[in-house]
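Subgroup meeting minutes
Present: P.N., E.W., G.H.
Scribe: E.W.

1. P.N. recapped why we're keeping a running log of single-chain structure predictions: easier to compare across weeks, and new members can see raw inputs and outputs side by side.
2. G.H. added today's entry (191 aa).
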Amino acid sequence: RSAAWASSPSTRSFRTAEIDSWFYRMPDRKTVEDYLENVDDDFRFTCKLPMSISLTHHRKKKGETVLRQNPDFLSTDLFSYFLQAVEPMAGRLDAVMLQFEYLNRRKMPSLDHFLRSLEGFAGSVPEGVPLAIETRNSNYLHREYFQFLRENGLLHVFSEKIYMPHVYRVYEKFGDLLSGAAVLRLMGGAR
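Output recorded in log:
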């Protein structure tokens, strides 16, 4: 799979790829090295942190009616473990994305609570690690959110999804608070 992937037209054209699969499981060093062995030295990556870090609650299993809190939500220990695993790729990562699901009030009472939760985690990010935040809450996209990202050296992930405002509108309103890079993810229906 890796050899075919590395020679696909998209990897020759864009010279970058997002590794989405790490959202579902923590990578190991061998997997990271396999990715690197199958691309040129100037090929770049973005990747997602595992959902074990970004989900506030465990996903419901069949028959469950109660949300179970995730004790590893924003775990700095798991984050350190992840960074150790991806260390061979460190200089080629344009963004390490922390993707949050839509957070209803049962999972996260407010934007202020979300930012306070994220603050401690943001303080654990080593210098040089480009941490990017993807919120699926359109109601979080306020100046306060973008100021928080800027003050903490975090990148914003623009998500082009059906229930999110168009990326152009978000940029027009808050582009003055962005510095450096940002991530643009084109997902869902009409991309």
